TrEMBL record:
<feature type="domain" description="S1 motif">
    <location>
        <begin position="100"/>
        <end position="168"/>
    </location>
</feature>
<dbReference type="InterPro" id="IPR003029">
    <property type="entry name" value="S1_domain"/>
</dbReference>
<keyword id="KW-0472">Membrane</keyword>
<dbReference type="GO" id="GO:0043489">
    <property type="term" value="P:RNA stabilization"/>
</dbReference>
<protein>
    <recommendedName>
        <fullName>S1 motif domain-containing protein</fullName>
    </recommendedName>
</protein>
<dbReference type="InterPro" id="IPR012340">
    <property type="entry name" value="NA-bd_OB-fold"/>
</dbReference>
<dbReference type="Pfam" id="PF00575">
    <property type="entry name" value="S1"/>
</dbReference>
<feature type="transmembrane region" description="Helical">
    <location>
        <begin position="39"/>
        <end position="60"/>
    </location>
</feature>
<keyword id="KW-1133">Transmembrane helix</keyword>
<keyword id="KW-0812">Transmembrane</keyword>
<dbReference type="GO" id="GO:0003723">
    <property type="term" value="F:RNA binding"/>
</dbReference>
Length: 268
């Protein structure tokens, strides 16, 4: 029978049932009659997760919550696996650091994919992935060095059994949460159209046969020849593709017929 050794790190009282938080320490192949000490117990693999038990090696150092019951001889026997209420990283027997905690540590190794940090207060080591080193894109060797003291934030593990930290989430001077800097938006690149490439035309009419001279109709048109302009070829192609259905003629940009009375104060 395949089983795992569960180390109890915290008792969580829930009414008449005892909830405990424990760490999967190692894989065992036989179940002894009694426990070796008062803080460890054995868990049958089928209780930890549904399915094959071969994945138990991936659960090592992971923290889970279990519902426990007392056997007649007094041995603690987990019989139900409850969903994790709080992920944690074990430091030593009876102590753990919850996800989100900030701890001091030292860089022990630098790799191309990040760096490894060992915590000062408990000896636990974990990976700071390259994406968690800095808010800016940078190589690990440009951010940290071996032996450098750092402040890290405990993250949920990327993989079962792996401890993960974040360096960029903590202000290295104050220990407070560090937010990514706000980046100023660059204005979008624009291409200006020269007035020399535009042609403005007017046409006026005073009514049929020149009658009704107090009423004037004015039509103004602004034309811009895309093909004859000095714009880059890519811009000309985009204009033709974007505005082909918008304008009735290839070069017509704006047409504005205006009718007004001469004796009124027309301001255009």
């Amino acid at each position: 029978m395949c089983a795992a050794l569960l180390h109890i790190v915290s008792d969580l009282a829930r009414s008449s049932t005892t909830f405990v938080e424990g760490i999967i320490l190692l894989k065992v192949t036989s179940i002894p009659a009694t426990r070796a000490d008062g803080v460890s117990t054995l868990v049958v693999c089928s209780i930890i997760a549904v399915g094959a038990s071969a994945a138990i090696l991936a659960w090592l150092r992971e923290v889970y919550h279990y519902v426990t019951a007392q056997k007649p001889e007094g041995a603690l026997r987990p019989h139900t696996h409850a969903p994790p209420r709080r992920r944690a990283v074990a430091l030593r027997a009876g102590e753990f650091v919850p996800v989100g905690a900030v701890r001091a540590g030292e860089v022990t190794r630098v790799e191309s994919y990040g760096c490894f940090v060992k915590l000062d207060d408990g000896g636990a080591s974990g990976l700071v992935h390259v994406s968690e080193l800095s808010h800016e894109r940078a190589r690990p060797e440009d951010v940290v060095a071996v032996g450098q003291p750092v402040l890290v934030k405990v993250l949920a593990p990327r993989e079962p059994g792996r401890t993960s930290f974040s360096l960029k989430a903590v202000d290295q001077r104050t220990g407070a949460a560090s937010a990514p800097p706000k980046r100023a938006r660059k204005p979008a690149a624009t291409t200006k159209v020269s007035l020399d490439d535009c042609v403005v035309s007017y046409s006026r009419a005073s009514g049929a046969g020149g009658q009704n001279v107090n009423k004037v109709s004015t039509k103004a048109e602004l034309r811009f020849s895309v093909d004859d302009s000095k714009l880059p070829p890519a811009v000309r192609a985009q204009l033709r593709a974007t505005h082909a259905a918008r304008f009735p003629f290839p070069s017509l940009i704006h047409s504005n017929p205006v009718s007004s009375l001469i004796d009124s104060e027309l301001k255009e």
